[in-house]
Amino acid sequence: MAKFELKLPKMGESVAEATITNWLKKVGDKIEIDEAVLEIATDKVDSEIPSEISGVLSEILFNVNDIVKVGQTIAIIETESQQPTPVVSTPEVAPESVVAVEEIIEKAVATVSEPVNFSSSDKFFSPLVKNIAKQEGISIAELEAINGSGKEGRVTKEDILKFVESRKSNVAAPVSKPITINQQPTTISVNGGDEIVEMDRMRKLISGYMMASINTSAHVQSFIEVDVTNIWKWREKNKNAFEKREGEKLTFTPIFMEAVAKALKDFPGMNISVDGEYIIKKKNINLGMAAALPNGNLIVPVIKNADQLNLVGMAKAVNDLGNRAKEGKLKPDDTQGGTYTVTNVGTFGSVFGTPIINQPQVGILALGAIRKVPAVIETPEGDFIGIRNKMFLSHSYDHRVVDGALGGSFVKRVADYLEAFDINREF
Description:
The protein contains nine helices and 21 strands. The chain is of the alpha+beta class. Strands 11, 14, 17, 18, 19, 20 and 21 form a seven-stranded mixed sheet that branches. β15 and β16 form a beta hairpin.
């Protein structure tokens, strides 16, 4: 029988590794082509890894909660083919080399007060940071708790050295609550009444991200009320024809996303990210759209190059990502690369909100519920009271790099685009 290496496939340009969360097959099980073998998770999305061939699972090379790099072999499948796919084997080592290696290991262990099992963490640590952790006897729990200043919250050399110094001087270093991963949350009943329910894996990650964002960015909010009567009337007039022609539902979201993309082109200072003491100006406008999952958790799929889409293209992108989010079919790359995020709190009836910034971005816009309200309408003939469709836009931005003038001007520009919407526009 031939042996086939099942490797962790490429899951997007920005995804380099994943955590194994569950093996769907065990050694000895028969596997059909395209049948799911295991489940993996990146920092935001859970996925299944299918088999490229039919055969029998003969070896499992990683355990649940192990972190695997893209391209690494994770299992061996035996097939009936007579032309085996080469399997990398471990070269034989001379006895004297084994002794030398054992001596090195013993010396290394002697310098570490507590062994560090990096595979038990879902966070990425550079080889340099790992070496410092080993030398200084830093446990994985301590390492996870360090509030990293690097890209995507990663711990840098400076971060870990500061932690070492603060520990030596008995001064607490800035930390964030460590995230532990458990694929099967437990429930404990207290005296038959209250229940203690462990957070699921995604909720733990979200909790960690939210606290890290609050501890990182200086959140400031600006609010503005917008008259969207023309948009309301236009959608009512065109939604049936739009669905008939395009095969897509026409919601308000793509209209709002279009306005945000235009405003980001006008104010590129909002389309940036922060890496330590550096500002990264983003070339592309990639809009994240927060979406609620059926289990109550939150995910943020990304519309890439949103400023290049017309209204039809935006509607298709919004519907596609929203539907796949509900069905749990998002790919890891679907949630990567966002440069600005929009969340629709009005879906749940909220008039406005104060959303938390999606790091390392510097702004997030909350769309409030559209309401019919009495309003003063100015005309050449005088002012009068009329019924209008209005909503609030709530803009949270990072005051470390975005001042009130920019943050306020940006959300005002979004409002201007919405209020200037052409009621006679063709789609």
